[in-house]
Amino acid sequence: MKRFIVMMLALFLAASPVISESYAQEQKVKLTRAEKKALKEKKKAEEKARLENALKTCNYKIVINRIYPFGMNAITTNDGYYIKIENGVLDMHVPYMGSSKSAAWGEQRQGIDVEAQKITITSQYYDKNESWIYQFNFINDNRKDNNTCTIEMYDNGNANIRVESNGRDAIQYSGEIRFE
């Protein structure tokens, strides 16, 4: 019996910080629906302004988290793939999966790698989708083929990327915009 009482006392003492913490959280000030909506709108406006500033200055990085090869299932990744644009200079390191119209030679890598390549970007904002569309051309350092990249960046910080090549099937990626 003594053992049972000691055990119950130990359980009560161990649980008391959890109980008091949950009680304290319940006592926090609750926001009204209008206040929550106003905070959400304010946060959305701040994110949009930050994104617009980054896009105007061409200083951002897109961290790739999904790969959509043509005719294949989507692949989730966290392997450090990215597209970075800084002052009109492109750095890009993304994988490629798909069909090629020409054979690879020797040790030629299949990924899309670009380092410090100057690009000319065209852009347009679409109110309907609340997104920016950016398009530019570049040459893949691995294969020396011409590519067209279209990036759709949404006000919520997400991005969809499509890369079309003159020598391979198109491939798409999605990711999150990070500000440098």
Structural class assignment: alpha+beta
Count of beta strands:
10
Give the overall form: extended
The string of secondary-structure elements, in order, is HHEEEEEEEEEE
Helical region count?
A: 2
Percent range for β-strand residues: 35-45%
Distance between the termini: 65 Å
Q: How does the major sheet shape up? A: 10 strands, antiparallel
Contiguous low-pLDDT stretches (5 residues minimum) are none
Average pLDDT rating: 77
Using only C-alpha atoms, the radius of gyration works out to 25 Å
Helical fraction equals 25-40%
Please give a structural write-up:
- Helix content is 28%, strand content 39%.
- It has 180 residues and is an alpha+beta fold.
- Strands 1, 2, 3, 4, 5, 6, 7, 8, 9 and 10 form a ten-stranded antiparallel sheet that branches.
- A hairpin with a 3-residue loop joins strand 8 (146-154) and strand 9.
- The longest helix is centred in the N-terminal third of the chain and has 25 residues, at 2-26.
Considering the chains and any ligands shown, give keywords for the structure.
alpha+beta, 10-stranded antiparallel beta sheet, 28% helix, 2 helices, 180 residues
